[in-house]
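Anyone up for a design puzzle?
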């Protein structure tokens, strides 16, 4: 499997997993998987343009430089990735984080919006 196909598969799988986790009441994990679905589709987008990075900060920076600042992606859409990252960090590392079904559903909806926008850009 080539690198592009791998990132697309990971994104699709994590989005589906986020929904399954949310449906079973595993909200922290659902929020985390929703973020990773966005992270992997962003890596797919970057790699499709010959840009390669494996770090979260590198993904944000390259998305901003090559897609937001050039007008290819709306800044509001790019902000969804940063918001998802912040929510994922809180869920994964803050033991007093209070997550709920609404927060998880919002994270999944934002991931779906972000992924749809990226896929439109790729088509």
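Challenge accepted. My sequence:
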């Amino acid at each position: 499997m080539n690198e592009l196909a791998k990132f697309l598969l990971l994104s699709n799988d994590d989005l589906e997993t986020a929904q399954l986790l949310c449906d079973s009441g595993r909200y922290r994990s659902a929020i985390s998987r929703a973020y990773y679905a966005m992270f992997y589709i962003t890596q797919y987008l970057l790699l499709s343009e010959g840009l390669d990075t494996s770090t979260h900060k590198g993904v944000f920076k390259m998305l901003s430089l090559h897609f937001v600042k050039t007008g290819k992606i709306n800044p509001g859409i790019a902000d969804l990735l940063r918001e998802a990252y912040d929510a994922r960090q809180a869920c994964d590392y803050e033991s007093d984080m209070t997550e709920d079904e609404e927060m998880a559903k919002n994270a999944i909806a934002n991931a779906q919006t972000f992924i749809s926008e990226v896929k439109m850009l790729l088509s």
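A detail worth pointing out: The domain at 3-122 is CATH 1.20.120.330 (Four Helix Bundle (Hemerythrin (Met), subunit A)).
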